[in-house]
From TrEMBL:
GO molecular function: arginine kinase activity; ATP binding; creatine kinase activity
Coiled-coil portions: none
PANTHER family, alphabetized: ARGININE KINASE 1-RELATED, ARGININE OR CREATINE KINASE
Residue intervals passing through the bilayer: none
Organism: Gymnetron veronicae
Name the record gives this protein: arginine kinase
Family: Belongs to the ATP:guanido phosphotransferase family.
InterPro entries referenced in this protein's UniProt entry, alphabetically: ATP-guanido_PTrfase (IPR000749), ATP-guanido_PTrfase_AS (IPR022415), ATP-guanido_PTrfase_cat (IPR022414), Gln_synth/guanido_kin_cat_dom (IPR014746)
Length: 141
């Protein structure tokens, strides 16, 4: 769950100056809910767990977002939506993904990208943007 040192894009935006000072990760006992402070954005809320109970993952996230919003209002712009440091996260700021093992498609990355494009999905490595898959497991969002 630890942050990776800022990638070249974050470095170019001067987003990871003084790394790792001023950053932190908080999590529940089961490590199914995490709060990353000052990684790519000021706050990143992560709800995750093994298995297929997406409803539980979503309910946990919504409960946390509502609790935080009661104490600290999120910045919002009428046209842009919720504001973040990273422009690709503007708007709803939500990215839902699954980690899934697709060994046959992993052997043919071009086919995997073709299928993902057809359904407007993004394919990433399990460690985030600009990373490779590990053992045929991809982050699909």
């Amino acid at each position: 769950f630890l942050f990776k040192e800022g990638d070249r894009f974050l470095q170019a935006a001067n987003a990871c100056r003084f790394w790792p000072t001023g950053r932190g990760i908080y999590h529940n006992e089961n490590k199914t809910f995490l709060v990353w402070c000052n990684e790519e954005d000021h706050l990143r809320l992560i709800s995750m767990q093994m298995g297929g109970d997406l409803g539980e993952v979503y309910r946990r996230l919504v409960t946390a977002v509502n609790d935080i919003e009661k104490r600290i209002p999120f910045s919002h712009h009428d046209r842009l939506g919720f504001l973040t440091f990273c422009p690709t996260n503007l708007g709803t700021t939500v990215r839902a993904s699954v980690h899934i093992k697709v060994p046959k498609l992993a052997a043919n990355k071009a086919k995997l990208e073709e299928i993902a494009t057809r359904y407007n999905l993004q394919v990433r490595g399990t460690r985030g943007e600009h990373t490779e898959a590990e053992g045929g497991v991809y982050d699909i969002s």
